[in-house]
Amino acid sequence: MWDQEIRAMASTHAIIAASVFMATVLPLVLVPGFSVYGTHLLWLYSVSAAVAAVSVSVFWLLGISPPTKKHTLGYKLSRLFRSCLYFFLSCLFFHTVVILYGAPLIESALETFSLAVLLTSLTTLRCLCVLGPNVQAWIRVFSRHGAMSVWDTCLQITVGCTLIGAWLGAFPIPLDWDRPWQVWPVSCSLGAMIGYLTGLVVAPAWIHYHRKQLTYKCK
């Protein structure tokens, strides 16, 4: 059972990582003048959309999302509405946090909000896919010893790596190097993406290595 869960996780992460690669390569071929630095917002939204679409599809096909207790259309629409609402609120939350950490309040507001959309796509959306629009479950997972499945542990690792990567990406910005990747928010979004991809690799490897110490039951 453990090997099956880990293989499913590794396959899921490989598909998501491939979507990031395709969202970067295809615009290079199809869009004249496209570059990660020069047209950074286009790349940012391309990657965010790819990760969102693939994550929702793959987690739904694997049945990772928690089952709904009710099967009525109204309940499903309510669940969908709450998920979209949480996604939007998460964008506002990350936007506020980034400003509190020193991002321009009015100048480059679009760039700041775009970074918030990327962070939401890499973190909050994954919480919605694994746990659903259940804030109590989110709090449980990110509390100490709160993981109850391998997917909960995976969620902890990928979200943590993403946020740490975005935080580390801010360090080169004030340095007087005059590099194109120091323009706001290039280094932060690249740091978040590198951290996210790192988490996709580290999570199944860490769970496989520590599987004998993990005591919870698989889903």
In short:
The protein has 219 residues and is mainly alpha-helical. The protein is built from eight helices and no strands.
Protein topology:
Elements: H1 2-30, H2 40-62, H3 73-100, H4 109-122, H5 124-131, H6 135-141, H7 150-169, H8 186-209
Helix pairs in contact: 1-2, 1-8, 2-4, 2-5, 3-4, 4-8, 5-7, 7-8
Q: Which key features would you list for this structure?
A:
single chain; 219 residues; mainly alpha; 8 helices; globular
The major β-sheet equals: none
Parts with pLDDT < 50 across at least 5 consecutive residues: none
- Report the sheet-strand fraction: under 5%
* DSSP summary: helix tally: 8
**Helical percent range?**
55-70%
Total beta strands: 0
Could you tell me the mean pLDDT?
Answer: 89
